[in-house]
Amino acid sequence: MRLLIDFFPIVLFVAAYKWQGIYVATGVLMAATVLQTGLIWLLDRKLQTLHKVTLVLVLVFGALTLFLQDERFIKWKPTVLYASMAVVLAAALWIWKKNFLQILLGSQLTLPSPVWARLTVAWVGYFLFMAAINGWVAAYYSTEDWVNFKLWGYIFPVLFIVGQGIYISRHLKDETAGK
Fold first, then answer.
1. Taking a C-beta distance cutoff of 8 angstroms, is the pair 172, 111 a contact?
2. What is the total count of domains within the chain?
3. Which of 133, 152, 137 is nearest to 7 (CA)?
4. Of 58, 90, 101, 176, which has the fewest beta carbons less than 10 angstroms from its beta carbon?
């Protein structure tokens, strides 16, 4: 169920684009993201910072796209989001000496501090990669190609998450070992 909630805005965006074009798709994305955020809040009774930032960026860049009739805004929104996340994670880790991943997920995962630091560096790299590849596709390819990339480009986060899971699994403490 959670996977459907996470991916339905992009699926609806792509379907709306194929059906009616970028401006209708932008409106659909905005509405779907509001609905997605509401569903997450209903399920969890809270929103993570990423959900809030994503909602604000989708609404702001979507409104600019529609108001100015300029598709570049919606195409560059993911680059801004990914780059912002990389900067925040990197600044927190290296300047403020705080590990936001550990703060956010530490109650769910027990990992040694060096592992949390390596995970954060991996996430910074991942976000920079995603910002760069979205920017490249947005700048040098057609809107049609960019929309297709948004759908099929989800292989990158899936592979990254699987890789993170494999890495983390080696460091998790076996809760049943002492029983």
1. yes
2. 2
3. 152
4. 176
Domain boundary among 37, 68, 99: 68
Which H or E run includes 100?
A: helix 100-105
Greatest Cα-to-Cα distance within the chain, rounded to the nearest angstrom: 63
Encode pLDDT of 118-174 as tens digits. Answer: 999 999 999 999 999 999 999 999 999 999 998 888 899 889 999 999 999 998 865
Crossing angle of helices 72-94 and 113-140, in 10° steps, is: 160
78 and 51 Cβ atoms separated by less than 8 Å: no
